[in-house]
């Protein structure tokens, strides 16, 4: 099996790899979103709760 065949996956490669891509984006967003939200809330608390 060559790399081309592996990446092409019998004609379904675009669907398989796009699904992996979407899943990776969602997992990364789920990991980073709380960090950014925590930093924003901490800044807001340090300013005295004012926006």
UniProtKB/TrEMBL annotation:
Q: Which InterPro entries match?
A: Haem_export_protD_CcmD, Heme_exporter_D
Q: State the GO CC annotations.
A: plasma membrane
Look up and give the organism this protein is from.
Nitrococcus mobilis Nb-231
Provide the alphabetized UniProt keywords.
Answer: Cell inner membrane, Cell membrane, Cytochrome c-type biogenesis, Membrane, Transmembrane, Transmembrane helix, Transport
Give the membrane topology: Single-pass membrane protein
Function of the molecule: Required for the export of heme to the periplasm for the biogenesis of c-type cytochromes.
Query: Per the UniProt record, which residue ranges are transmembrane?
Result: 12-33
Q: What's this protein's family per the entry? A: Belongs to the CcmD/CycX/HelD family.
Q: Where is it localised? A: Cell inner membrane
* NCBIfam families in alphabetical order: cytochro_ccmD
Name the chain's protein.
Answer: Heme exporter protein D
Question: Any keyword Transcription?
Answer: no
**Chief location category:** membrane
Name a biological process GO annotation. heme transport
Region forming the signal peptide: none
């Amino acid at each position: 099996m060559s790399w081309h065949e592996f990446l092409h996956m019998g004609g379904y490669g675009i669907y398989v790899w796009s699904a992996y891509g979407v899943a990776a984006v969602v997992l990364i967003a789920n990991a980073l979103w709380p960090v950014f939200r925590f930093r924003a809330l901490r800044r807001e608390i340090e300013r005295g709760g004012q926006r």
